[in-house]
Structure formats: structure tokens, C-alpha cells
């Protein structure tokens, strides 16, 4: 339950921010609690890390503490469930404070990404032995247009240089803590954890993931995930 970094066994902590309300799904239930082939999304996601032999502990930042405890509090390696924040960034920071002693490798993963494969998970964790910051990502397949406020195309970036970021995003703990502290000092809010690390000058590398590692955001995403699980059954 650790990664060999230069001959030292470094434990792995997983942070799962699960305080979102999932408003784009409609209805009154947060998407991480919705069923996916009969099992709540959060249970499927946490299970991915519970079963991973490289993971030492799981820390969840939750909005609904009672429901989260009932669903996943008993699962292997779930060490702590802490109150989440108003934003994803606040939730990750809250969970990061609950991570056990450092040095550590810390993986941050979306609660609503239950289709991560063991191969990608173990691959990116092992790569953290060599790199202090990693983002699971896939090459962009579509042509991307940059537009201005009036909807006019101003540029067409070379898609060969574009990757779509996913999770997990994996960091040496001291690198991630320093990035969060700097962001808080500057009042900076990023769209993912890697964007905070990028600001500190630490190089962030991509680890090639899989297109099927989708984030469940809309009803169409749930239908796609159901189909993927059915096909893999």
C-alpha cells in the first residue's frame, strides 16, 4: 500500500471531493448518490480505490455527511469523511488537511468518475515515483475553436498540443499543499488541482488515460456509463 520512491516506501492517500449538488442533472439528489446499474455512483467510485493495492487511505470531503457515511464509511481504506466546502477547491483543501503524515503521494479524483480502470489508476500512481505532478488526460479529437465575447472565431489551436484533463490528478503532498496555500494567498480559484500547481512553476505531466473515464454530469452521461458497464459485464 505504497509507492517506492528512491528506495523509500511512500504511502498513497486518495482525496475524493463529494460535496457537489449536481444541479445539471435536475431533481433533488446529488449525482454522486444516484444509482448506476443499481449501485450509487459514489460507492462505485470509492470502490475503485478500496480495491487498489497501492492505495493506503481514502479521505472524502462530503456535503451530506450522514448519507456519505452510510454509503461508504464501511468500505476498506476509507479513513475519514470530512465536511466539504462551498467549492470543489475548498473541499479538496479540507480533505488535504485530514491526510495523514507526510511525505505522501496524494491522488485527487472526482466523485462522479466511476469508470476509471485499474490499469490507468495503478499506472499513474506508479508514475508518481518519478514526477511530482501528474494529470490523467486524453488527446483532444475534435477541432477546437477559440472565440471572443461576440462569438467570433479568433484562433484554431493545433489539437496535437491539446489534451482533455480527467482525474485522478496525482501529486507529491508537499507540492499540492504549497500550491493550495499560494492560491489562497493570491485569491486564485482554479478549475482543477493541477492549475494550482502550474502556478507554482512545478512541471505537470500528462499520463495518458482512456476516453471512457467520463465525468457524470448530465443524464446523457449516465446513459453512456450504463451502456459502458453493460458492455463490460
Helix content: 25-40%
- What is the CATH T-level topology? Spore Coat Polysaccharide Biosynthesis Protein SpsA, Chain A
Number of helices: 7
Strand content bin: 25-35%
Q: What's the number of domains?
A: 1
**Helix and strand succession?**
EEEEHEHEHEHEEEEHHEH
Class inferred from helices and paired strands: alpha/beta
Sheet of most strands: 8 strands, mixed
Keywords:
single chain; 233 residues; alpha/beta; Spore Coat Polysaccharide Biosynthesis Protein SpsA, Chain A; 8-stranded mixed sheet; two-stranded antiparallel sheet; 31% helix; 26% strand; globular
Can you put this structure into words, describing what you see?
By secondary structure, the chain is α/β, with parallel strands linked by helices. It has one domain (about 1-220): Spore Coat Polysaccharide Biosynthesis Protein SpsA, Chain A (Alpha-Beta Complex). It is about 30% helix and about 25% strand. The protein is built from seven helices and twelve strands. The protein has helices at about 40-50, 65-70, 90-95, 120-125, 175-185, 195-200, 220-230; strands at about 1-5, 10-20, 35, 40, 55-60, 80-85, 105-110, 135-140, 145, 155, 165-170, 205-210. Strands 1, 2, 5, 6, 7, 8, 11 and 12 form an eight-stranded mixed beta sheet that branches. Strands 3-4 form a two-stranded antiparallel ribbon. β5, α2 and β6 (about 80-85) form a beta-alpha-beta unit. The longest helix is centred in the C-terminal third of the chain and has 14 residues, at about 175-185. It starts with a strand and ends with a helix. About 40% of the residues are buried. The model has no long low-confidence stretch (mean pLDDT about 95). GO terms for molecular function: nucleotidyltransferase activity. This is 2-C-methyl-D-erythritol 4-phosphate cytidylyltransferase. Catalyzes the formation of 4-diphosphocytidyl-2-C-methyl-D-erythritol from CTP and 2-C-methyl-D-erythritol 4-phosphate (MEP). It comes from Symbiobacterium terraclitae. InterPro entries: IspD, IspD/TarI, IspD/TarI_cytidylyltransf_bact, Nucleotide-diphossugar_trans.
